[in-house]
Amino acid sequence: MNRPLVITRDDALLDDLLRISAAAGTEIDVAHVPAHARPYWAKAPLVVVGDDLADDLAATGPPRRPRVLLVTRGDDVDPTVWRRCVAVGAQEVLALPAAERRLADEFADLSGPSEETGRVLCVIGGSGGVGASVLAASLARAAAGRRRSTLLVDADPLGGGIDVLLGQEEVRGCRWGELVAREGRLNPGALQAVLPSTGHLAVLAFQRGAARPIPAEAMRSVLDAGQRGFDLVVVDLPRHLDAAAAEAAARAATTLLVVSASVRGVLAAAQVLSTLREHTSDIRAVVRPGVLDDDVVTGSLAVAGAGHLPDQARLAVALDRGQAPPLRATTSLGRFCAGFLDAFLDEQAGPAGEEPRP
């Protein structure tokens, strides 16, 4: 695979470009003189020309091509820089450090899948204590067990950490606190590499201690990368949707609303539903045990039913011991996850079906 070409002999500029490309998960070829760039000029998917060598490069008369950027350092772009931009056939001038995000996006676009093919599945509780986070974690584990590359995203800063539900709170890797400052596109491979992962499941949770709300831009970056790099992205939503949670809900192919089959449970779920409907349309109820029949619950909320999820014996004991929820076929969670994923993955597959990513 051809790599982006950088043409510069400015060491400080090159250090910046190497750092930015590495953060985007992209390797680059470097030419320190224009003559060395000639073999790569036409083949490189992107050419970044340092302002220091723009005049020398223009003197060689390089053929016109798309995706050429002229990069300079400093805040001011004077008229001579624009002249050099035209001379080398560049489409744009990027001044660092202000344009670092834009340049990182350009590099990231060249790495990994370019299309957003992964499906987003959101899970939200209609009220507290109905097991929405447990269901989200279990669905993600079940999908990963089917060799579907799966990203589990904790979008609830007050939820206690979804990694705890998996018994993975000690697994090393990035949490939200290390990603909240990130804007622009993330490279899918780089995201996979830094997150705690087991088998086909990667997890993005909150760190211990004070957890701040996630900026919408950070959630957008993570979901962009998740959809490009994973088969399935499962998001555990908070009941009070903030900007980041709304971003996730808007991308959901389906959102599961976990509802207690009680009068108060349905009334609380109706409140959550009124906000949720502003951001997504395919909402299905997962009914938990209570005094009301499932069809009464779904009819009162005017949503489709995704199934009934009974209580699971000794589940609380397993979670308190730091164990992931058991998903054997003999458990209620195992049966629900298997049945729902069979239907969901079949619905979301293309006409000829969809193979898991390697």
Automatic annotation (TrEMBL):
SUPFAM superfamilies found in the cross-reference section: P-loop containing nucleoside triphosphate hydrolases (SSF52540)
Keywords: ATP-binding, Helicase, Hydrolase, Nucleotide-binding
Protein name: Helicase/secretion neighborhood CpaE-like protein
Annotated PANTHER family: SEPTUM SITE DETERMINING PROTEIN (PTHR43384:SF11), SEPTUM SITE-DETERMINING PROTEIN MIND HOMOLOG, CHLOROPLASTIC-RELATED (PTHR43384)
GO cellular component: cytoplasmic side of plasma membrane; cytosol
Domain Rv3660c-like CheY-like N-terminal: 7-114
GO BP, one annotated term: negative regulation of cell division
Record-annotated CobQ/CobB/MinD/ParA nucleotide binding domain positions: 122-158
Molecular function per GO: ATP binding; ATP hydrolysis activity; helicase activity
